[in-house]
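User: Here's a chain of 181 residues. Predict its fold as tokens.
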Amino acid sequence: MSGCMTRDLQRDILSVLPSLRAFAISLTGNVDQADDLVQETVVRALGNIDKFTPGTNMAAWLFTITRNQFHTAYRRRRREVEDPEGTYASKLATAPAQNGNLHVQDLRTALIKLPVEQREAVLLVAAGVSYEEAAQICGTAIGTIKSRVNRARNRLSELLGVMNPEDIGADRVMKAALPRE
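Assistant: Prediction complete.
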């Protein structure tokens, strides 16, 4: 770690990692790629820590770096060979051992079907990022974020066959992803 980085900054970065990893997994749909994305985010953040303004939101800064890295990698991958046969996608689907894992897998599969803009908006809000912060991270207006989240929640409800959020159970993240009554 950099000698000029304070323990508070280190603590702030470490406290965001679980949410950052969950966001990265949802964006990529692949745990290994997500871990690489989070690692690249931390490397970039530490390399540019002098550009972080103390007193501002560390989580928003790290989510922004993650999002930008994801889009950069996505643009790079678009030039690579596609997966028209679904060979790669079929490897992502695994039979979970428990019902809870089935629900997570179903949600993950449904999330991947959302447009990237809707997916990242709903995931940021589900991770506890405010609409204002999500708008800043995504570089768009707050109304656009609210619209994307609403559309994502409605589409997830359709894809998961859930008409009432109470049918899902007590999972906070899952409830946050569904339309509010």
